[in-house]
Amino acid sequence: MSRCGVDVNHLLSLHHLHQATTRETKMPNAATDFDAVIVGAGAAGLAATRRLHYAGRSVICLESANRIGGRCHTDTSIFGVPFDIGGHWLHYGELNAFILIGRSLGFDVYEASDDVVFDGDNTIDEVTAVYNEVEAKLNEKTQAESDMAMTEAFTARNDLERTCLFLRVLSAGRDLDEISMHEWVTAGLERDNWYCREGFGAIVARHADGLPVKLNTPVRAIARTPQGAEVETPQGKLTAAHVIVTVSVGVLAAEAIRFDPPLEATRMAALDVITMGTYNHCALQFADGTLPVGPDTLVCYPITALSGSMARAGEMLCNISGTGLCVFEHVGNFAKELEASGQDAAIAFALERMRDVFGSDIMKGFRKGHATQWASNEHTRGSYSGTRPGGAGMREHLKHPHAEVIHFAGEAMNKGETVTVSGAHKEGLRAAGAVLEHL
Fold first, then answer.
1. pLDDT band at residue 21 under the 50/70/90 scheme
2. Across all residues in the chain, what is the average pLDDT?
3. Residue 310: what are its φ and ψ, rounded to 5°?
4. Residue 173 pLDDT
5. Residue 15 pLDDT > 60, yes or no?
6. Preceding peptide of 261 cis, ω within 30°
7. Does 4 score more than 70 pLDDT?
């Protein structure tokens, strides 16, 4: 089935033809075009589509962008080697669904190494000891006090403590004063991490092979009807017994999709405190033999100053899978600043950090760079969700069905694997299971 350049009526005829060849296919309710319409072809949307499709249900997934994968996409055209524009780390160790999925599909999925370089006056053992002290103090605060901003929870006494605090919360994708202490300290991202040599996004894409997806089809409105729901797109309208919405909380908060009836007050209140952070990658490619570190070496350096609660810094994952590709990771308002300044500014900043760490000779092997721009991405409006101080526990308000037949899924709703691709995948399966129960 073609995934682009097909009008809705043609898509429907192709879809029903395809479904007629599927074993044990159940015909949709005669009053609707589909049993379910899925909005968004990221990890959650694809998981929901896959479960319903293989349950023999009539389903279509509508995606506003020109590709599947959402915030987990592997590009090979920029550098000629796999480059994860979005998610790259398979977090949460054995809990991550894509370790097993990747292996079953023949991908080279492997555990991250412990190779870390700290470019400062302290040894790795000293940095690790201070990092553990910071972690212990934050855990004590979480158990004893109500939710607060990370800036209130911990005041660094020196540059090393400041650096360790930043490294602990880097994955939150936001500045310290925008991080809920209770949510982030209890997140389990400190478990073992894994990588995929072919790219994390490649696993997500391969796992979606054969699913009924329509690209370049943004959903503008979803309305409850007596038979289920009506979904409006620029190409026309579709009807379904159920709808699963998997767009980001940034898209929901911007009201890019109109709901009738309007979303309830509790969900809108949750969208006020669960917002999109910015976590960008600036990738630098170096010639073979240039980098003096082994594959997947994490490089950190001291943070000597903060601008308010914003750190003008990041960390670098160097020599990814031995390809000579390095990714400088920067977050929050600093990431937005670099993004607004353009590709050249982000690349220049990352190269300056590389020279600081490895010396000016590193530039002899530099080939090209590329910076992601998630804050300005209209399809996501940020990288992934995070909870503002005082909002811990609000994620549950996002996952309840709306008007009985409109369901929601995505990384923002998963508490067990917070803000991860695996968490989004599992939320998609949950929502699809709820639809199957109703059907």
1. very low
2. 91
3. -105, 130
4. 93
5. no
6. yes
7. no
- Rounded Cα distance between 289 and 286, Å, is 8
Determine the Cα–Cα distance for residues 326 and 336; give it in Å rounded to an integer. 20
- Coil/strand/helix, residue 407: strand
CA nearest to 118, candidates 278, 255, 299: 299
Buried residues in 46-58 as b, exposed as e (16+ CB within 10 A): bbbbbbbbebebb
With a CB cutoff of 8 Å and minimum separation 6, the contacts of 148 are: 141, 181, 389, 390
Q: What are phi and psi of 272, to 5 degrees?
A: -75, -30
Partners of 107 in the β-ladder: none
| Mean pLDDT value of segment 58-63 | 98
Tally the residues of the chain: 439
Between 106 and 17, residue with greater pLDDT? 106
pTM of the model: 0.92
Residue with tokens 């092979």: 209
Q: For residue 238, list its beta bridge partners.
A: 231
Cα torsion at 339, 344, 347, 349 (round to 10°)?
-80
Q: Which pLDDT tens digit goes with each residue over 239-267?
A: 999 999 999 999 999 999 999 999 999 99
CA pair distance 315, 330, nearest whole angstrom: 7
User: What kind and span of H or E run contains 130?
Assistant: helix 124-144
Q: In a 10 Å sphere around its CB, with 0-12 CB exposed, 13-18 middle and 19+ buried, how is residue 20 labelled?
A: exposed
Q: Average of pLDDT values for 274-299?
A: 96
- Sign of CA pseudo-dihedral 190, 388, 138, 307: positive
pLDDT in tens, 166-215: 998 898 999 999 999 999 887 766 668 999 999 999 999 999 999 999 99
- Residue 338 clears pLDDT 50, i.e. is over it: yes
What per-residue string of b and e applies to 367-377 under the rule 16 or more CB within 10 Å gives b?
A: eebbbbbbbeb
Mind spelling out the 3-state secondary structure of 288-334?
CCCCCCCCCEEEECCCCCEECCEECCEEEEECHHHCCEEEEEEEHHH
DSSP codes of every residue in 208-266: TTT--EE-S----EEEEETTEEEEEETTEEEEEEEEEE---HHHHHTT-SEEESPPPHH
Structure tokens at 410: 């995505």
